[in-house]
Amino acid sequence: MTITIKPKEVEISGRFDVLVAGGGPAGIGAAVSAARGGASVMLLEKRGFLGGNITAAYVETCNWFLHGTSFSPYGLYAEIENAYRAEWGRSHDIREHAPHRFSSEYLKIFLDELMEREGVKVLFHSFVNDVVVEDGRIKALIIQTKNGPQALVSDIVIDATGDGDVAFAAGVPCKKGRDTDGYCQPGTLNFRIAGLDARYLAGHGDKLKEIGRQFEKDYLAGKTGLECRRKDLPFGRLTDGGLISYINYPCSYMIDPTSNTGLTRGEIECRRYIKQFYHYMRTHFPGFERIEIASIAPEIGFRDSRRIEGKYTLTHEDIEKGVVFADTVCVFPRMYDMLSPDGFMGGDGALSGMGYKGHIFVHIKDDDTRSFGVPYRCLLPVKTDNLLVAGRCISTTHVAESSVRAIYACMLTGQAAGTAAAIAVHSALMPEQVDAAVLRTELSRQGIITSP
Ligand SMILES: Cc1cc2nc3c(=O)[nH]c(=O)nc-3n(C[C@H](O)[C@H](O)[C@H](O)COP(=O)(O)OP(=O)(O)OC[C@H]3O[C@@H](n4cnc5c(N)ncnc54)[C@H](O)[C@@H]3O)c2cc1C
Description:
Layout: E1 12-21, H1 25-36, E2 41-44, H2 53-56, H3 75-88, H4 104-118, E3 121-123, E4 127-134, E5 137-145, E6 148-159, H5 165-169, E7 174-176, E8 187-188, E9 191-194, H6 198-201, H7 207-220, E10 244-247, E11 251-252, H8 260-284, E12 292-296, E13 306-308, H9 316-321, E14 328-333, E15 336-338, E16 360-362, E17 371-375, E18 387-389, H10 398-404, H11 407-427, H12 436-445
Parallel strand pairs: 1-2, 1-6, 2-3, 6-18
Antiparallel strand pairs: 4-5, 5-6, 7-13, 8-11, 9-10, 9-12, 14-17, 15-16
Helix pairs in contact: 1-11, 3-11
The structure holds flavin-adenine dinucleotide.
Flavin-adenine dinucleotide (FAD) binds near residues 52 and 302.
C-alpha cells in the first residue's frame, strides 16, 4: 500500500556556496577545505555533535592502520591530530605503545571550536532526507527539523553522509555490500566500562591485549558460550580512573545500514550481546569483578553502506596493481580490513580464497611498497552535476571500500572534495569541469601526496 504526500511550500532558510551533508571525517575534511578555499560553507549534521563514527560510534582510534608502520598520516587529518594532541595530550590513555586515540567527548568540543575558527557554519539536528533536482542539478537540500522541513540552497553539494543519502535522494545509482548477496560488514555498538580494579592498572605490559588474546582462544575453542559471533576484542583507551573508553565487540550481522527495521534489530541485538559480555567479563577476568557498563555509544556504527556509482569505480585489482591515475587526489598504503558480512569466523584473512568469506585483514607492511591513489572521478557521481561525494560512500567495489573507509582516508577524500568545490565555485564550473591538474597542484600545495 502507498500514500501520496502532498507537495509543500518550504522556507529557504539559507544560501551558501557549498553545502556539506554529514559531519564525520569526510564532512570535516570537506567543510574545512572548502572554507579555506574561500567558499561560504554550511555543514549539516543530523546529530548534535561532529565526528561521525569517531565520536558517535566511539571509534576514537583513527590511524590504527598506520600504527607500528613507517607510514604517517598527512593532510588535514594529521593537522587535526597534532592540534588535538597539543591541547588534550593522550586523552588520559595509560596503555603503553598505543596508537593515538581521541577522546570522543574532548573531540566534540575541539571540532566545534575548529569549525568556528575556520569560518564553517554548522547546523546540528538537521537530517538531510530529500533534494530538489532541476536539470540534473541539486537546487535545494531538504532537512527535517522539529518545525518541519526546511530548504537550503548552494552552488555545490558535498555528500559526506557515509550512506550516500544525498546521492541516493538525487537518484544516483548506488550499490551496497557484497555483489553476491548485498550484505555489508556488521554493525557494531561500541560501549565503555568503568570500575576496573586498581591492582590491575598497576601491572606492567598491556594486559588488555593479553585479555583479547585469551578471549579469542576461548571463543575459538567454543568455551565462552557467548551468542555474538565475534572472536577478536579490540579495547580502546584505558584511563587511570579504571575506564575502558570503548570495547569494539557487539556485532550484528546481515543488517541493512539504511533500513530502520534493520537498524532497530541491530541496536537491540547488540545491547543483548553487551549484557551477556558484561556478565562474562565479571566472572572470567580477574580485576573485572566490579566493573559497570559506563555508557553505550549513541548509535550502532557501520564500516560500509551505500557506495555511489561514480565516473570511475576503484577496484581492489587497481589497488593490487598500484594503478597510477592521472587524476589521483590522495594516496594510501595498501591495506584491507573487512569484517565478515555474514559472521563466518573461518578463513585466513587473505584477500583471495576463503578470505572473502571471513574477515579479510591485510595489514600495512613496511616491506610492501604498494600504495594506491584515489582518482578524482570516484568522487563524481554519474548523475547530478553539482554533487561531489566523499568518505566511505565514494565509488569503489566492496573490497576496495575496506581500504578507503579508514578514517584518515575519508578525511582526505573530504579534503579533495572540499578543495574541488571551492575551485568550482570560484571558476563558475561544475565539479566535473574542474581541471584535475589544477586540483592536484592545489592539493600538493596543501601537503597532500598525489602520486603513489
Ligand atoms: C565499530 C567501528 C570500528 C571502526 N574502526 C576503525 C578504525 O580502527 N580505524 C579506522 O580508520 N576506521 C574504523 N572504522 C571505520 C570508520 O569509522 C568509517 O569508515 C568512517 O568513519 C567513515 O567516515 P565518513 O565521514 O565517510 O562517515 P561517518 O563517520 O559515518 O560520518 C557520517 C556523518 O554524517 C552524518 N549523517 C548521516 N546521514 C546524514 C543525513 N542524512 N543528514 C545529515 N547528517 C547525516 C552522521 O551523523 C555522521 O556524523 C570503524 C567503524 C566502526 C563502526
